[in-house]
From TrEMBL:
<dbReference type="InterPro" id="IPR015943">
    <property type="entry name" value="WD40/YVTN_repeat-like_dom_sf"/>
</dbReference>
<keyword id="KW-1133">Transmembrane helix</keyword>
<dbReference type="InterPro" id="IPR031777">
    <property type="entry name" value="Sortilin_C"/>
</dbReference>
<keyword id="KW-0732">Signal</keyword>
<feature type="region of interest" description="Disordered">
    <location>
        <begin position="1037"/>
        <end position="1056"/>
    </location>
</feature>
<comment type="similarity">
    <text>Belongs to the VPS10-related sortilin family. SORCS subfamily.</text>
</comment>
<feature type="domain" description="PKD">
    <location>
        <begin position="744"/>
        <end position="788"/>
    </location>
</feature>
<dbReference type="InterPro" id="IPR050310">
    <property type="entry name" value="VPS10-sortilin"/>
</dbReference>
<keyword id="KW-0472">Membrane</keyword>
<dbReference type="GO" id="GO:0016020">
    <property type="term" value="C:membrane"/>
</dbReference>
<keyword id="KW-0325">Glycoprotein</keyword>
<dbReference type="InterPro" id="IPR035986">
    <property type="entry name" value="PKD_dom_sf"/>
</dbReference>
<dbReference type="InterPro" id="IPR000601">
    <property type="entry name" value="PKD_dom"/>
</dbReference>
<dbReference type="InterPro" id="IPR013783">
    <property type="entry name" value="Ig-like_fold"/>
</dbReference>
<dbReference type="Pfam" id="PF15901">
    <property type="entry name" value="Sortilin_C"/>
</dbReference>
<dbReference type="Pfam" id="PF00801">
    <property type="entry name" value="PKD"/>
</dbReference>
<dbReference type="GO" id="GO:0006892">
    <property type="term" value="P:post-Golgi vesicle-mediated transport"/>
</dbReference>
Length: 1056
């Protein structure tokens, strides 16, 4: 007998009244696995995303091999079996199809195939070779997932390219020749006759007649990157999503109708190219990846809305991402961050899939046989929001459980007694139960863990008790209350099957020796009885059980010796029960988490069969009742940019500015002002604290202009005499519609505009003379102003060595640098502070900060602000600059200050005194900050300062200091210019004096994530840069405002 693997058919359609199967393959016909790639499996997500990699799964043993299709075909070139799913239990119309193949070792190919059909659940079989062609060699068998009466067979492409179609459950076939070779098929999830076929030469075809006629849709389609539209509202069912290569080798995301995919009718929902092999369409979501500046960026479209960049925490800097689930209008993703190698972080999104918050850090990962990444995360069947995960902590792997989609995680309480009733002394958190969470790739083995939708409280898994997960001393454990308590059931690994909706558990020992016995439990694993299932010991190769309605049949298959054929043993447990369960045989059971009944905002009560009742359950009843709970703080997770601290509060992360939410709105509009919390998606709680924690609509505050950027339409800051130059004005923040814009082109001509919208098409201007023009743009409203001063024209200065400049007064100064290479100019602007007297001190940090240091400019600027806040109690007038490289260090500057009258309040002695006070506080470990929840960083005074940034000796002149500034400020440019004079003909430096009172030299980090930032460590030395290729970015991606956007930088502070 043979049972279906779970998920092959809808739960209400599973049947299996088999009797006995004849031996179809003599020992001379050894059935082996094939070499081809697996055909598609309707997005089930196994193996290579759409197919199951069976190569090598059976070894070299011959004989009869049976396999139920999933839901149309699993790739095996041994014996294949498919069976019919019907709406009525124990229907007498059950059909089983078996495809056998003969593999010739000498020829290295399939030389013969046979098709067998049974209409009495396997009691008798008819050979159908004469109906498909006596000389026809078949390769694959497909069953339509929405109409099981329709069957499709593919011929071996090495012999011919044809398909055979049956509409009567495989009784008769019609043959159709093809002009292409099918590599895989994808059936429509609702329309039974719609099919997509992917050819071996990467062409995609469609059919609306179940394969009788085909239409070419597109060429150059990426393997496994084509999808039917799967939107929940059923819109556009004939829409096809695909990833295709362009003529020049790029990848594009394309959508078109299945019967009309001409160039004129195709759509390209994502602007521009995407990374190869990155398109994913899953439910209401579409995902693509685009790498720029050496970093991958991920984009999502929800319900076919315009794409938005997926917002992870600012310094996650992902190397890899896997979309785990899009259930219940939420994206669950595993992200490998820049400092991770064998672990991933779990993130969960808002409804649109844009803003992600951390669910669990450092989840263990491993490499599969096919090179695929496997995350140690298991979603418990039947209970919404319940997951198990193996987390790596200090090189130890521990198992955690959550009942609310990752908001809260806890260790598993170990059993109180062992299998023999001896007490187990295991105290949380030092000792707990740890489980192996690998789900089997082979449907004939149960894997390390199993749960079922029809038995929501029962989980069976292998694991161990102790301080960490181990591969030694593995036992089997079961829970019948959804993970609250566990029992040890075996001291060795067993395969466990669920029969009769979990009313019967069947266990069979994992061993390389032949066995005769199995174990049964009728009380959710509390007690077990031993049964013999065969008269002769059998080498068990697999067990099949069907979790369908009323099913009490399982199949054990294996061989008596290594030279014998496959043996199948049918085990039917129906005779054990003498009646069906009635209402009084059941009891209510309430789902809970360590006594807390409100889970995901609802109280859910299920019904269970009483353990002392031995009756057949039949149809699964599901939850009896579900009652919403009053909302509490536990129903809310931290919103994007916020982190949960030990006191339970959600506070902004060090890199996040909550006011940034309102930056894109204008006065008179409104936006949702986050409270720092967001309700867990699919949580059903009502009232309570919901109003307090829900984001509130708020009127957009008037904002002064900030982040002004001036670009040219062609991205170059050069002009040709007598031709139009189009300037583009961009503003990151501010009341856009109520800002006055004044533009001085630098040649004596100036214009004004009433608001920014009037400049959407650009500001055009013609220069009549040749030269360098200082363009001044001023944007102002009633709250403030911002200006930018790009320089336009031909380079007139070439830096041959260095340039010096002496500042005459104290204050804030803006320096602009342009480097020209051909028609491209790289421009950057920095603001520096000039003081006559100040003190500096080198700072160091506790070593754990290095673990979170990606060594990029943005991070250093953000940490500088955090350190300055930690020091503000000692002195308000300080500057902090975190330096590039590891170990992490910083330079602290103690500055003079003035009162409103301009009188200086600090003398050199005052600065020295403050410096000594700071050193004393630092040496007493009184200065510290929390980088993230649970990560405390101490700030120390470094005792040795190697090559200080600033030399305070009197002999250090302003000219010499600016020479240092040139080297430090220009970064890569200065070093490379010395070595690449011929490649970079021009370097221009402009200085602008500003009378700014603000002493904060660390500017806010730009939100423009498209600008690549290269770690300072990549600069190396001038000698190491000789053989490196200079990367020059178009001026269009570089800020010309006073905000620093340098791609390679060292903090710059000078003594005037």
């Amino acid at each position: 007998a043979l049972a279906l693997v779970e998920n092959m058919c809808p739960p209400q359609l599973w049947l299996l009244p088999w009797q006995e199967l004849p031996t179809l393959a003599p020992s001379a016909k050894r059935d082996l696995l094939g070499e081809r790639a697996a055909p598609p499996c309707q997005h089930w997500g196994f193996g290579e995303q759409r197919g199951w990699p069976w190569q090598g799964a059976l070894g070299g043993t011959g004989g009869l091999w049976l396999l139920c299709e999933f839901p149309h075909q699993l790739h095996m070139t041994g014996v294949h079996a498919d069976r019919k799913c019907f709406g009525q239990p124990f229907s007498m119309l059950g059909v089983i199809l078996i495809l056998t193949k003969l593999y010739d070792y000498n020829l290295g190919s399939i030389t013969e195939s046979s098709l067998w059909r049974s209409t009495d659940y396997g009691t008798t079989y008819e050979k159908l070779n004469d109906k498909v062609g006596l000389k026809t060699i078949l390769s694959y068998l497909y069953v339509c997932p929405t109409n099981k009466r329709k069957i499709m067979l593919l011929t071996d492409p090495e012999v011919e390219s044809s398909l055979l179609i049956s509409s009567d459950e495989g009784a008769t076939y019609q043959k159709y020749r093809l002009n292409f070779y099918i590599h895989s098929l994808l059936f429509h999830p609702k329309q039974e006759d719609w099919i997509l076929a992917y050819s071996q030469d990467q062409k995609l075809f469609s059919s609306v007649e179940f394969g009788r006629r085909w239409l070419l849709l597109h060429e150059g389609v990426t393997p496994n990157r084509f999808y039917w539209s799967m939107m929940g509202n059923g819109r556009e069912p004939d829409l096809v999503h695909l990833e295709a290569r362009t003529v020049d080798g790029h990848a594009q995301y394309i959508t078109c109708k299945m019967q009309n995919c001409s160039e004129a009718t195709r759509s390209k929902p994502f602007p521009g190219y995407i990374d190869h092999n990155s398109l994913i369409v899953q439910g209401d979501y579409v995902f693509v990846q685009l790498t720029s500046g050496g970093r991958p960026h991920y984009y999502v479209s929800y319900r076919r809305s315009p794409f938005a960049q997926m917002k992870l925490p600012k310094y996650s800097l992902p190397k890899d991402m896997h979309v785990i689930s899009t259930d219940e209008n939420q994206v669950f993703a595993a992200v490998q961050e820049w400092n991770q190698n064998d672990t991933y972080n779990l993130y969960i999104s808002d409804t649109r899939g844009v803003y992600f918050t951390l669910a669990l850090e450092n989840v263990k990962s491993s490499q599969g046989l096919e090179g695929n990444v496997m995350i140690d995360l298991y979603e418990v069947a039947g209970i919404k929001g319940m997951f198990l995960a193996n987390k790596k902590i200090d090189n130890q792997v521990k198992t955690f459980i959550t009942y609310n989609k990752g908001r809260d995680w806890s260790l598993l309480q170990a059993p109180h007694t062992d299998l023999r009733g001896n007490p187990i002394h295991c105290l949380l958190p030092y000792c707990s139960l740890h489980l192996h969470l690998k789900v089997s790739d082979n449907p004939y083995t149960s894997g390390n863990i199993a749960s079922r939708d029809t038995a929501p409280s029962i989980i069976v898994a292998s694991g161990n008790i102790g301080t960490e997960l181990s591969d030694n001393d593995i036992s089997m454990f079961v829970t019948s209350d959804a993970g609250n308590t566990w029992r040890q059931i075996f001291e060795e690994e067993h395969s466990v099957l669920y029969l009769d909706q979990g009313g019967v558990l069947v266990a069979m020992k994992h061993t390389s020796l032949p066995i005769r016995h199995l174990w049964l439990s009728f009380d959710e694993g509390r007690s077990w009885s031993k049964y013999s299932f065969t008269s002769l010991p059998l080498f068990v190769d697999g067990v099949l059980g069907e979790p369908g309605e009323e099913t009490l049949i399982m199949t054990v298959f294996g061989h008596f010796s290594h030279r014998s054929e496959w043996q199948l043993v049918k085990v039917d447990y129906k005779s054990i029960f003498d009646r069906r369960c009635e209402e009084e045989d059941y009891r209510p059971w309430q789902l809970h988490s360590q006594g807390e009944a409100c889970i995901m905002g609802a109280k859910r009560i299920y019904r269970k069969r009483k353990s002392e009742k031995k009756c057949m359950q039949g149809k699964y009843a599901g939850a009896m009742t579900s009652e919403p709970c009053v909302c509490t703080e536990a129903d809310f997770d931290c919103d994007y940019g916020y982190e949960r601290h030990s006191n339970g509060q959600c506070l902004p992360a060090f890199w996040y500015n909550p006011s940034s939410l309102s930056k894109d709105c204008s006065l008179g509009q409104s936006y949702l002002n986050s409270t720092g919390y967001r309700k867990v998606v699919s949580n059903n709680c009502t009232d309570g604290v919901r109003e307090r924690y829900t984001a509130k609509p708020q009127q957009c505050p008037g904002k002064p202009p900030q982040g002004l950027r001036i670009l040219t339409a062609d991205g170059r800051l050069t002009a040709q005499q007598g031709l139009n130059v189009t300037f583009l004005v961009q503003l990151e923040e501010g009341d856009l519609q109520r800002s006055l814009i004044q533009v001085d082109f630098g040649d004596g001509i100036a214009v004004s505009y009433a608001n920014l919208s009037s400049t959407e098409d650009g500001i055009k201007h013609i220069y009549q003379n040749v030269g360098i023009f200082r363009v001044t743009v001023l944007v102002e409203n009633s709250l403030g102003s911002d200006s930018a001063h790009p320089f336009l024209g031909f380079p007139l200065i070439t830096l041959e060595g260095s340039i010096t400049f002496t500042f005459s007064v104290e204050g804030m100064n803006t320096i602009t640098v342009q480097v020209s290479a051909g028609n491209t100019i790289l421009q950057d602007t920095k603001t520096i502070a000039v003081y006559e007297k100040f003190q500096s001190l080198r700072l160091s940090f506790s070593p754990n900060l290095d673990d979170y240091n990606p060594d990029i400019p943005e991070w250093r600027r953000d940490i500088s602000r955090v350190v300055k806040r930690a020091l503000v109690e000692v002195s308000c007038h300080v500057l902090v600059a975190v330096l590039p490289g590891l170990p992490t260090s910083a330079e602290l500057f103690i500055l003079p200050y003035q009162d409103a009258t301009g009188e200086k309040k600090r003398t050199a002695a005052n600065l020295e005194q403050i410096s000594e006070t700071l050193i004393q506080k630092l040496n007493q470990n009184l200065v510290h900050f929390e980088l993230k929840p649970g990560v405390r960083i101490l700030v120390h005074a470094a005792h040795l300062t190697a090559a200080p940034l600033v030399d305070l000796t009197p002999s250090h002149s302003g000219s010499a200091m600016l020479m240092l500034l040139s080297v430090v400020f220009v970064g890569l440019a200065v070093f490379v210019i010395y070595k690449f004079k011929r490649k970079i003909p021009g370097l221009n430096i402009y200085a602008q004096m500003q009378n700014e009172k603000d002493q904060e030299m660390v500017s806010p980090v730009s939100q423009r994530e498209s600008i690549p930032n290269v770690p300072q460590s990549e600069l190396m030395s001038p000698e190491q840069l000789v053989d490196e290729k200079l990367e020059v970015h178009p001026i269009g991606s570089i800020s010309t405002a006073a905000e620093p956007q340098s791609t390679k930088e060292i903090p710059t502070y000078v003594n005037g």
